[in-house]
Amino acid sequence: SLEEDKNKPVAVTTQKRFSHQYDVPDFSAKIIKGKNSDNSRKAFSYFLLAAGGFSYAVLAKNIVRDLLNTMNASADVLALANVEVDLTKVPLGSTITMKWRGKPLFITHRTDAMIEAAEAV
After folding, report:
1. Buried (b) or exposed (e) across 71-81, using 16+ Cβ within 10 A?
2. How far, in Å, CA of 3 to CA of 72, rounded?
3. Mean pLDDT of 70-90
4. Is it the case that residue 87 has pLDDT exceeding 90?
5. Three-state secondary structure along 64-94?
6. In the predicted model, what is the mean pLDDT of residues 44-67?
7. Please, what is the average pLDDT of the chain?
């Protein structure tokens, strides 16, 4: 068994790596100092980042506001929601019936006796 394994050919792979070595040109003499310096590039990048972030924040706010405005009541529903009644014209001890949102609304101007009777219950 061990003797048989020793007699078997062994596959050996070898790799030879060819690296290309060449000189990288130096462009430092071509760089204009001042206008395109690292600090001005960083400042411009930060400015663009801040402007983009602000734009996305405004866009997100407008989308959320528009979605919430779709849940508001429409103008015709709001118009039916308000009813104005002059309570000074309701005589003491009487009840008037008004219409509010298509349903009856009962308004009673109670006397002192009616209030005492309701509190006694």
Report:
1. eeeeeeeeeee
2. 89
3. 82
4. no
5. HHHHHHCCCCCHHHHHHHCCCCCHHHCCCCC
6. 96
7. 81
Short-list 119, 74, 115, CA closest to 92: 115
**What gap in Å lies between CA 46 and CA 49, rounded to an integer?**
5
Largest CA distance in the chain: 123
CA gap 86, 92 in Å, rounded: 13
The residues near 94 (Cβ < 8 Å, ≥ 6 apart) are: 108, 109
Q: Are 31 and 40 in contact (CB under 8 A)?
A: no
Rounded to a whole number of angstroms, the distance between the first and last alpha carbons of the chain is: 108
Residue type, 117: A
Q: 16-53: per-residue pLDDT in tens?
A: 656 666 777 787 777 666 665 677 788 889 999 999 99
pLDDT at 1 over 60: no
CB 118 within 8 A of CB 96: no
